[in-house]
Structure formats: structure tokens, C-alpha cells
Amino acid sequence: MTEKANNGPDTPTPEELRARVEGTREELGQTVEALAAKADVKARTQEKAAAAKQKAAEAAGLAHDRTTAAREKATEAAGRAQEMATEAAGRAQEKATEAAGRAQEKAAEAAGQAQEKATAAKEKAVEAAGAAQEKAVHLLRSARESTPEPVREKAAQAAAAANRNRALVAAGAAALAVAFVLVRRSGGRR
Question: For residues 144 and 66, what is the distance between their CA atoms, to the nearest angstrom?
Fold first, then answer.
């Protein structure tokens, strides 16, 4: 009876005390595990290192993809530039050939009538061709300085082809100049 007399309405029973102790032990165990996880610097460092390594690998993959895409675009641009340069050189050569043919016909007709005037006009045409060539060289240098290296290489190949045909281009320009002078003079006599 003394046990019950000591126990008041607020005094817990031994079973309640054991349950409380068990609950406190579980809470304490969880707290110890959490503290141990936080205190395990090596494991946390390894986790962070693995995460950083993963991010670095992803960044390297992205950089590789971007580099590959840029190379492909540069290759495409160089191909298009080469095609355009080849087409332009072909058209210029065709036009120069046609113009040279027409100019030679007209120059031959007018040569019998005005040999001295044709010679003077031819000299002016050669000077104009030289000036045009200098201007073309200047423009080529400007273009070369602002053009990417792969495009420059293709342009150099096109320029070499034009240099091989320089005499034909100069003769065509001279014939055009002679024809122009003769046409203007014959138009003024009418």
C-alpha cells in the first residue's frame, strides 16, 4: 500500500517511466547518428568531391559539344566561301572572255581608221588596268585582314588562278578601253 500512497495522480508508473526512457533512448540514438554523419568530414568531402567531379564532367562535355558545333559551322562557312569564290571567278572569267572578244572585234574594225588614237587609248587602258590592279590588291589585303584563316586559304587559291590569267584580263581591259574611245568618237561624228 505504501507504493500507491507515494504515487500521486501526477506520478508516473514504472511502465510509463520505462516507455519514456525507451523513447528518450531512441531520440538520443537518432541524434547521435545525425551528429556522427555531420562529424564524418571525410564522407562529406568525398560526396562534395564526387558532385564537383560530376559537374566538371558535364561542363567538359558541354564545352566539347560546343567546340564540335563551332568546327562544323566553320567548315560549312569555308565550304560556302570556296563555292562562292569559285563561282565568282568563273563568272568573272566568262565575262572577261566575252568582253575581250567583243572588244577585239570592235578594235579590229577601228584599227584601220585610227591607228595612232588606238595606240594612245591602249596606253591609257594599260594604266587603268594597273590602277585597277593596285585597287584590287588593296581590296584583297583589306579582305585578307578581316577574313578568317580558312577562307583566306581558299581566296589565295582563287587569286593564284587569276594571276595565271593576268595577261588575258589585261588584254581584255585594253581592248575595252580602245573600243570605248572609238565608239565615243564615232558617236560624236554623226
Answer: 27
